[in-house]
Amino acid sequence: MNKAPLTLKPQDLFVLLAMLAHGGRPRNYLALMMSTGLAPSVLHGVIKRAKAAGLMTVDHEGYNAVLKPQLKEFVLFGARYAFPAQLGAMTRGVPTSYAAAPLKSLIAPSADAVPVWPHMRGEVRGLALTQVSQMGQGDLFLACDKTNHPDPFEVIY
After folding, report:
1. How many CB atoms lie within 10 A of CB 21?
2. Nearest to 76 by CA among 153, 144, 14
3. Peptide bond before 118: cis, by omega within 30 degrees of 0?
4. I want to staple 95 with a disulfide (CB 3.0 to 4.6 A). Which of 38, 99, 107, 144 is the partner?
5. 79-to-32, 48, 61, 70, 110 alpha-carbon distances in Å
6. Closest of 68, 149, 128 to residue 140, by C-alpha
7. Beta strand pairing call for 115-118 and 124-129
8. Could you give phi then psi for residue 152, rounded to 5 degrees?
9. Do 99 and 75 share a domain, yes or no?
10. Do residues 99 and 124 make contact, with C-beta atoms less than 8 angstroms apart?
11. Per the domain annotation, does 57 fall within a domain?
12. Is residue 2 part of a domain?
């Protein structure tokens, strides 16, 4: 019997970054579910695909753990090709790309609408940039807020 190969989904990157915001490994599926807003069955699929892609492993204590160097390489060099960004309609959201720090201070402003990640608590109107994962309130930045943890990208570096 031929099984279809496992292919990463945008939500996989979201969950891996959320895991980094919590120290790189989930305490359990319930904790991961609470921080991401995803069902345990979805999280199980994420972990299965991440292991198949070489972005996670089982550590010496038997816990699933994110492989930081591999995830860093994927975020820096692969994610833009695996999950290309697409601009959408005008909406309220959080500035991203060249509209966010530190690029915002380096790039001259124009009359064009800036790219934003749609979010109901966003304070800027701009063109919706398709998020890595459409999780509504369970997005990565809210996951970080719940733990008072810095931006998960800082954890990779």
Report:
1. 23
2. 153
3. no
4. 99
5. 22, 18, 29, 12, 28
6. 149
7. parallel
8. -60, -20
9. no
10. yes
11. yes
12. no
CB-based burial, 44-70: b 16+ in 10 Å, e otherwise: ebbbebbeebebbeeeeeeebbbbeeb
Q: For 95-153, how does the pLDDT look when each residue is reduced to its tens digit (9 = 90+)?
A: 888 888 888 888 888 889 999 888 888 889 999 987 555 544 344 554 444 444 445 44
Structure token pair of residue 77: 């060099």
Tokens coding 141: 């930045």
Count of the separate structural domains present in the chain: 2
CA distance 145 to 155: 15
**Total length of the chain:** 157
65 and 99 housed in the same domain: no
The answer as to whether 5 is a domain residue is no
- Structural domain boundaries enclosing 140: 10-82+135-156
Instruction: Clarify whether residues 35 and 75 are in a common domain.
Output: yes
Q: Could you report the per-residue pLDDT of 3-46, keeping only the tens digit for each?
A: 777 889 988 998 998 888 877 776 678 888 888 888 989 999 99
Token duo for residue 156: 């990779």
